Amino acid sequence: MARAQRNGRQPRREATVDGVPIRSLPKVSLHDHLDGGVRASTVFELATAAGLELPVDTSRALGEWFAEQSASDSLVDYLKTFELTVAVMQSADDLTRIAREFVADLANDGVVYGEVRWAPEQHQAGGLELEDAVQAVQDGIAQGEEAAEEAGRPIRVNQILSAMRSGTRSLEIARLALDFRDEGVVAFDLAGPEDGHPPADHAEALDLLAAEFFPVTLHAGEAAGLDSIRSALIDGRALRLGHGVRIAEDLEEVASEGDEVRVSFGDLARWVRDREIALELAPTSNLGTGAIARWGTSLEDHPFDLLYQLGFAVTVNTDNRLMSRTTLTRELARLVDAFEYDLDDLLEFQLNAAAAAFLPVEQREELIDIVTEGFER
């Protein structure tokens, strides 16, 4: 049953739930792109130093430009903004710096465990070998983790390597991920234009990963619909769905009486719900890319709450913090405001994410304890 909704308003600067600052709560981030989480000030500095053309004259204005360009209701237009961020991520030093800052920003947001995804094949314009690029990011992560520990904000971050689904290098990236499976890389992803580029196009890479028992999470159910999700599960053997919001298209309201809503499940939706396949939902991003256009144009229209009430393993993510001008704290605050969630609801979202993390079961259990104890405090 979906909960009653109220008119949305922007969260206060110090967002709280049940009187508790949301920023102080331990959080788990599963879907966060490295090239979508670069600080605007860093993009401005590196681009200026490299002589790259910028659309504005200040770093503050650049942050606003990213947000305006990304609120286009089109995933294709949304992805164009990455041309600038990727352009300043072509050296080992720059990758290390950006990864270090990425971890620091997560730690400052209360994240205790995160998985950062990025596509190494897009970072070779300066002559970097794939292996050197991955190592540079891992070095930055390690530096960020160490600094966060010293500051009293312990965090652990792992990498997810993405292959571009419109490209031809997925097998190469799959092998790269396997080479680094014990050195910080925990999963494989397909990113980029979703519609027209199904996982089946990358069968050789996905078959290799399955044979090696290596985890896969695929972008699906964002720009494309149920066929995209079906292919991610069948062809990709995905353990999680990147976004997956359009699984709600496989649900049909059959009766409504007062606050009670009866819903009929399609076979695909029932499989995803019953198998507890985590949905890596990113509310603000889903609005900006038009992923929820079928249901409306405001956060209150997002099927997040319906999926939650029906028992799907929903998780909350930022997707691209720069483009959406958001944080995990802000995403949770917006959901609290839209759907009147309380502390127990936010805990449920974090436990779903912790249970779906690409970690050994013992470490997932430890993460669950960290999150639970943090909420209890």
TrEMBL record:
Its domain of life reads: Bacteria
Task: Please give the GO cellular component terms listed in this UniProt entry.
Answer: cytosol
EC top class named in words: hydrolase
Q: Mind listing the UniProt keywords for this protein, alphabetically?
A: Hydrolase, Metal-binding, Zinc
Q: Which cofactor does it need?
A: Zn(2+)
**Biological processes, Gene Ontology terms:** adenosine catabolic process; hypoxanthine salvage; inosine biosynthetic process
Q: Which GO terms describe its molecular function?
A: adenosine deaminase activity; metal ion binding
- What InterPro entries does this protein's entry cite? A_deaminase_dom, Ado/ade_deaminase, Metal_Hydrolase
Ranges of residues in domain Adenosine deaminase: 26-372
EC number(s): the record gives 3.5.4.4
Stated family: Belongs to the metallo-dependent hydrolases superfamily. Adenosine and AMP deaminases family.
Q: What is this protein called?
A: adenosine deaminase
